[in-house]
Amino acid sequence: MKKSILIVFCVASSLAVFSARAQVVPAATSSSFRLSAGALGSLAQPDYEGTGEAATAPNRIYGAGVYVDARFSRWVQIEAEGRWLRFNQYHSILLPEGNGESTYLIGPRIPILTFHRVTPYGKFLVGLGSADFLTGDTFVLAYGGGVDVRLSHRFTLRAVDFEYQQWRVNPTLYPYGGSVGISYRIF
Length: 187
Hints:
Elements: H1 2-21, E1 34-45, E2 61-71, E3 77-87, E4 101-111, E5 118-131, E6 138-150, E7 155-167, E8 176-185
Antiparallel strand pairs: 1-2, 1-8, 2-3, 3-4, 4-5, 5-6, 6-7, 7-8
């Protein structure tokens, strides 16, 4: 009797061990961290007219940029971006250096909701800006938003991205512009 109880106990224990191995890890334990990097094409209004002949400068400049999105959770996301707007600059005797701009910004990014593959978002970025017509770097605040469209598991199209910037110089400059781009999900 004792032997049969011992055998039944051993068989039941081994079945329990084998069945425990068949269990999957709960989805709640997986990491939600994601890291994406992308490239942008940008168009901006520099908010610098200059004086005299330079006042006829084009009101649009073009350029390229890069961005990195780090997603820690659904609501905690950080975006960092750099833009170099150097095309269509205006050069003259009064403005030999041109009216190009560069910005290096970082800050929170807040997705509003996801509908199928489309995610509108808002963002508030801070950082540094430099312009050919300024003597040094300046503090920049940028308010913006846009729409991301997921193309596949790895690729996302930044269908539209708009920023309204506030450059802390005297007088304060308010450039604004839009971008389109594509990103690749690294993690």
